[in-house]
């Protein structure tokens, strides 16, 4: 079953994660340098600090806590101190965004020294170029960040990396650790890409996890829906997608590609 990880959105998030039977809460601390890098794009930038990990641990002691750090691009080696702070606050795992070199990942692994799991974001040309080296490291997971990959490549839309096969090529070279991309919401939600087709594509690529972010908060939490029932529907859709015959997998993929071609032709993903 795919792991569903809820992005922390304030003190109510741990209770939502527990009620929904979710697998982890992600405290997103990546902010230094991100507003400048993503200026003009409709992306999510959170204000949280590592101490929010402690809030999650206190509110939901049995929940796995993951902290997405700042990047070496943004703060340099200070990110290692941030990682130690996150672990001291209760994080079970830290994720390094904007990976550019193997040395950055080695440095974080050494700093953690087995005290917490380490994951990475694959969202730069540098990370893609060394993916075979990264695949040999003792990482827990890799997530393809479509937003930053779009910015890095000056692409027209965040889903261009799915349309042109980049995500699938990365997936084919990541076999030793958990892999994920994109996000999930209710099967009948999702815009401009239907969630049912994103779920189908995650299943087709044999992904292990994905994030629940703005669309989930909008479609479920803000709408006042029951988190347990909503997550159950999402997991049912995942189970059905995994059970599809080959012709249905091909048909869903072709439908997704057709929609993505129209979306990408429609222009850039920018704020306002």
**Low-pLDDT stretches:** none
Q: Report the β-strand fraction as a percent range.
A: 5-15%
Order of the strands making up the biggest sheet: 1-2-3-4-5-6-7-8
- Structural class label: alpha/beta
Which CATH top level class fits?
A: Alpha Beta
How many whole angstroms does the radius of gyration measure?
A: 18 Å
Global outline: globular
Distance between the termini: 37 Å
CATH topology descriptor: TIM Barrel
- The pLDDT mean sits at 92
Helix content: 40-55%
Order of helices and strands: EHEHHEHHEHEHHEHHHEHEHHH
> In total, how many beta strands?
8
The overall number of domains is 1
CATH architecture: Alpha-Beta Barrel
* Main beta-sheet annotation: 8 strands, parallel, barrel
Q: What is the fourth-level CATH superfamily?
A: Phosphoenolpyruvate-binding domains
Number of helices: 15
